[in-house]
Amino acid sequence: MQTHKKFYSTNQVLEVCPFSKSTLHRMIEDGRWPRPIKIGSRSYWLEDEVSAAMQAFADARG
């Protein structure tokens, strides 16, 4: 059985995450946020990866 993954566009990531577009790009370069999947000229993130990244920030607060 094949499962379908949900993709988030950049704007959708920014709707659910509390930071700006420039901060998102900086965190990608720093390795603190997963790299996007490029489809054509657009960038997408898997919903699971966004959730995992946000959970990692929550876990890091101690």
Layout of secondary structure:
Blueprint: E1 7-9, H1 10-16, H2 21-30, E2 37-39, E3 42-46, H3 47-60
Antiparallel strand pairs: 1-3, 2-3
Name the features.
3 helices; alpha+beta; 3 strands; single chain; 18% strand; 62 residues; three-stranded antiparallel sheet
Brief rundown of the structure:
By secondary structure, this protein is an alpha+beta fold. The chain is built from three helices and three strands, in the order βααββα.
What does this structure look like?
With 62 residues, this protein is α+β, with helices and mostly antiparallel strands. It has helices at 10-16, 21-30, 47-60; strands at 7-9, 37-39, 42-46. A 3-stranded antiparallel sheet has the order 1-3-2.
Order of helices and strands: EHHEEH
What's the average pLDDT?
92
Q: Helix content range of the residues, please?
A: 40-55%
Strand line-up in the sheet with most strands: 1-3-2
- Which class of secondary structure composition applies to the elements? alpha+beta
> How many strands?
3
N→C terminal distance: 38 Å
Alpha plus pi helix count: 3
Q: Tell me what portion of residues adopts beta-strand conformation.
A: 15-25%
Largest sheet composition: 3 strands, antiparallel
Instruction: Give the overall shape.
Output: globular
Low-confidence runs: none
Q: What is the rounded Rg?
A: 12 Å
